[in-house]
Amino acid sequence: MAELTSFSYRPGHSFIHKIDTRFKLLFIVIIGFSSLKASMSGILLLSLIAVCGLVMVGISLRQVVRDLYIFIFFLIFIFAVRAFSAGGVALTNPFGMSLTYDGLIEGSLVCLRIILIVLIGLLFTSTTRTAEVKAAIDWILRPFPFIPGGRVATMTGLMMRFIPVIMEQARETSSAQKARSIENRKNPFYRMVKFSIPLLERTFYNAGRISMAMEARCYSGKRTGQKLSSNINDWISLLVIISLCIISFLV
User: Is residue 2 situated within a structural domain?
Assistant: First the structure.
């Protein structure tokens, strides 16, 4: 049986699981825009709340780091680019590049914003069923006649469903390479090619199988989706999120 990843849906009865999916999408938008104007302390506050939510639904930080270890190198690269490209008084000049205090602050802010969005995304995918996401997006796009809401909702649902599958396939491919001692090769380009080609091949193969299965069942966007309903707890959560975002501007 495949092991659950950080992006996999985890059944539960927590307060976050019970929030209406439309409100969850709204929360992501509000927090995302708020992080652009929030201070470093405010972003840390929002990130701490997101971490508490992940722990509440049963996702450990160790598992998040294990699943997203490649993403950490991406953050290091972003931080380095920002730290050495921003103006200001130079603290040091390694290799002829100026490392400034303003660059360190700007690089830290950018990385913290990205981490916050990733944590919120993990919290969303781990507490929301694919059918609920499809129904919510279909409901949001329904007022726009020029946008095929059903098709967009279906593609979004499939994309969310495929994220944990791709991660599991990447883990299996990496294990197979270790069994063949490919990681002992000193050429990183060779290792990357040997890793990416099998992964892409299996991903496209599975996508093709799903496509043929949907065509065989005469699948169409005009289907009766899952019913969504909101209650007082959703509105209270909205007020709490807005209050936290306002606090992130002030701290």
Answer: no
Q: Which residues pair with 90 in a beta bridge?
A: 100
Which residues are within 8 A (CB) of 165 and not within 5 positions of it... i.e. 6 or more apart?
Answer: 206
CB 6 within 8 A of CB 217: no
Q: Quick check: 233 and 18 in contact, CB under 8 A?
A: yes
Whether the CB-CB separation of 80 and 107 falls below 8 Å is answered with yes
Number of domains in the chain: 1
Question: What would the two tokens of residue 232 be?
Answer: 């007082």
**Is residue 96 left, alpha or beta, with left meaning phi > 0 and alpha meaning psi from -120 to 50?**
left
Task: Evaluate whether residue 49 is within a structural domain.
Answer: yes
Range list of β-strands (E), 40-188: 90-92, 99-100
Phi, psi of 144 (to 5 degrees): -100, 100
pLDDT in tens, 70-97: 778 888 888 888 877 776 666 666 666 6
Residues in the chain: 251
- DSSP assignment of 12-56: --SHHHHS-HHHHHHHHHHHHHHHHH--HHHHHHHHHHHHHHHHH
Q: At what angle do helices 149-179 and 188-216 cross, to 10 degrees?
A: 140
Mean predicted confidence (pLDDT) in 99-128: 85
For 100, phi then psi, to 5°, come to -110, 160
Q: Give residue 58's domain range.
A: 15-231+241-250
147 pLDDT higher than 90 = no
